[in-house]
Specification:
mainly alpha; two-stranded antiparallel ribbon; globular; Growth Hormone, Chain: A; 17 helices; 473 residues
């Protein structure tokens, strides 16, 4: 599984990052071709964001039944269709439909590729490492495509051709995913994860007879396995602990009532507000509040995303040596200190210090989203696919709300006050990360819940082992 789905997921994240950035790079050309005003073009892009929000929310639930492979195939198919609609669009409604379809498809494709990680490794540090890889490759697509596409678009104005190239890349992902599934079934057995598993199962969960976790149980949610070559219904001899009642029911229910899930969702939503707010308002802040030239402000923004991407790609080299909670607190501390330079008054030399601080902040920002996702997936391992979908949905809500909030504050009290909200967002995330692990450990020990995939109910030894596992987080 790791040798096929992880490289495919990394490639998919490069393509998704390219899609997100091509929208901005080609916006002037699309606006001219479609004869749209700024408000209409903004509405088209907003519908794309709404489509992504719907795609991530629905896919978080669909992955429990469709498995990773099915979700990747579905998401890639929808993206290909949406790309075709965009390429053929000649007005507002067709363009809006195309972007909405692509948004739904990229949401499903991103959830599918991220749901591979809990199936590869059950450990929090391992998941954090692979999630950082995935989102680091997203950064490669987001940074690399504007450089390549900018030259092509300036020389030829052929934005439809660039979209066509990306559509072909998604089509390749679709063909590979379909072909891999057929190859797995042709041999009479399907290796664990190759037909797609959620975080409730992993390669390490194979039974003593060599049967895969999917053959033993379709998911920790207790959904019946499909009949036929892909899987069989769970029998008493091969039922999972959840199916036989040997673990608490909390392992198999949607953890909506657990305040820790809401804490994770709130933390990642507020973090995305900081990330998107910085990317959107940094240039305006530097030009208007610090007297920096537009070209230098744009260079500073590129420098931030360069360190941001480098930090994610380098994270697997050291994250396995540090507990995820400590890594998050350290990264948040770096981000707060670096962005704290924006509080310094003055221009000139002080503005140069602010520029350096913003660029260095990229290293701190880099691991926050993937590591928060890994912690949530590991903590609620029985519902990992669904929880990943909810985390991405919370991030999408934060992305949609931050610009209006910062804009409203900046309109009333100035751009300095609006930009300072980003520092406040990071401080709020720091407080939530500091609070969540201890509360969850106490709650698990008291209520006998499943924590990080381990049953806490039962003997004192099992409770102690599970709570020690939470403490290490």
């Amino acid at each position: 599984m790791k040798r096929f789905w992880l490289p495919l997921g990394l490639f998919a994240m490069v393509v998704i990052g390219s899609y997100d950035m091509l929208r901005g790079a080609a916006a002037p050309l699309m606006q001219a071709d479609w004869r749209l005003g700024y408000e209409q073009l903004g509405s088209v892009f907003s519908l794309g964001s709404l489509g992504y929000l719907a795609g991530t929310l629905l896919s978080g639930y669909a992955v429990q039944r469709m498995w990773v492979r099915g979700l990747v195939v579905l998401g890639a198919t929808v993206v290909v269709v949406g790309t075709g609609v965009i390429g053929l669009a000649h007005g507002f409604w067709s363009a809006a439909a195309g972007f909405a379809i692509v948004g739904v498809g990229t949401g499903a494709l991103e959830i599918g590729t991220n749901a591979v990680i809990p199936a590869i490794t059950p450990s929090a540090t391992g998941q954090s490492r692979y999630f950082n890889w995935l989102h680091g490759f997203y950064g490669i697509g987001a940074c690399g495509l504007p450089l390549a596409a900018g030259w092509i678009l300036q020389a030829t104005h052929a934005w439809r051709t660039v979209y066509g190239v990306l559509g072909c890349a998604v089509l390749a992902i679709l063909v590979l995913a379909v072909a891999r599934g057929r190859t797995g079934m042709a041999g009479g057995t399907t290796p664990a994860g190759e037909m797609g598993m959620t975080g409730a199962t992993s390669v390490a969960e194979s039974g003593p007879t060599g049967e895969s976790a999917r053959d033993r149980t379709p998911s920790a949610a207790g959904d019946p396995a499909p009949s036929g070559a892909g899987g069989r219904r769970t029998s008493a001899a091969t039922a999972s602990p959840a199916a036989t009642g040997s673990v608490p029911a909390a392992a198999t229910r949607t953890p909506w009532r657990d305040s820790v899930l809401w804490g994770f969702m709130l933390a990642i939503g507020v973090y995305v507000m900081a990330e998107v707010g910085l990317g959107t308002w940094l240039t305006t802040y530097l030009v208007e509040a610090r007297g920096v030239s537009l070209s230098l402000a744009s260079l500073c923004l590129s420098g931030f995303f360069l360190t941001f991407t480098a930090g994610r790609l380098a994270a697997p080299l050291w994250l396995h040596r540090v507990a995820p909670r400590r890594a998050l607190l350290g990264a948040l501390g770096v981000s707060l200190l670096a962005l704290g330079t924006s509080w310094l008054p003055g221009t000139g030399t002080v503005a140069g210090v602010v520029l350096c601080g913003v660029i260095l902040a990229g290293f701190g920002f880099s691991i926050l989203f993937p590591t928060l996702t890994a912690l949530a997936s590991h903590t609620f391992s029985a519902q990992a696919g669904r929880v990943i979908g909810l985390m991405f949905t919370a991030g999408a809500i934060g992305s949609m709300s931050t610009n209006a909030m910062i804009g409203a504050v900046a309109s009333r009290w100035g751009i300095q006050a609006g930009f300072s909200l980003i520092w406040g967002f990071l401080l709020a995330v720091l407080m939530m990360v500091w609070w969540m692990p201890d509360v969850h450990g106490q709650k698990a020990e008291r209520n006998g819940e499943i924590v990080s995939g381990y049953p806490v109910g039962g003997s004192a030894e099992s409770r102690r082992d599970a709570c020690e596992d939470v403490a290490r987080l």
